[in-house]
Specification:
With 182 residues, the chain is an alpha+beta fold. The protein is built from four helices and four strands; from the N terminus they run H-H-H-E-E-H-E-E. It folds into two domains: 57 residues; 101 residues, Ribosomal protein S6/Translation elongation factor EF1B (Alpha-Beta Plaits, 2-Layer Sandwich), CATH 3.30.70.
Length: 182
């Protein structure tokens, strides 16, 4: 009788070992992967909450910054927007002593209907110091302009007169169409 009990015990141990091995090889990997994915998702959500809290704390600053940016954009009226840009160019050229030769504006519609740009080719002449001052004044002005390209070339043998070619674009935010409240 002792041998039979031993066989039953060994059979039970063998079945238990095979069951544990199957559990380790078949059931455990998907559960571990699920657990790791869940832990990664929790880390991402915690970071999102932290970022959201940070944004909420700096809401006033961000809104003020956005308001200043919007105030610097050109007006939505094309004639007035061109006039704003021309006035700025004249002001910067007078402050720096640069001579403007030509200003060629061209309108471009943005990829969506929320903005358009006034692209402008500007040709000016002056010495390096005056041109530097002109570029500095253009860049520090709150008007929403982007300096796309700069070309400089000498106009005389001594290099005292330099021709400056600029490609600039001004931002115009177009108001969103609102639907009537129901």
């Amino acid at each position: 009788m002792q041998i039979k009990n031993r066989q039953q015990l060994l059979t039970i141990i063998t079945v238990a070992a095979v069951g544990l091995l199957a559990l380790d090889r078949i059931v455990s990997p998907p559960l571990v992967r699920l657990w790791n994915d869940r832990a990664a998702r929790i880390r991402i959500l915690r970071q999102d909450v932290k970022d959201g809290d940070s944004l909420q704390k700096s809401k006033v600053y961000i809104r003020g910054l956005w308001a200043r940016m919007q105030a610097g954009t050109l007006t939505n009226n094309t004639t007035q927007a061109e006039q704003q840009l021309f006035n700025g160019l004249n002001r910067w050229s007078q402050m720096s002593g640069v001579s403007l030769n030509s200003v060629t504006p061209q309108w471009k519609q943005g990829t969506d209907s929320t903005y358009k740009t006034l692209e402008c080719r500007v040709d000016a002449i002056g010495d390096i110091q005056r041109l530097s001052e002109f570029l500095y004044d253009l860049e520090k002005d709150p008007m929403a302009l982007k300096l796309e390209s700069v070309e400089m070339s000498s106009r005389d043998n001594t290099g005292m007169q330099i021709a400056l070619g600029l490609q600039i674009s001004g931002l115009v935010l177009t108001p969103k169409e609102t639907t009537a409240a129901r």
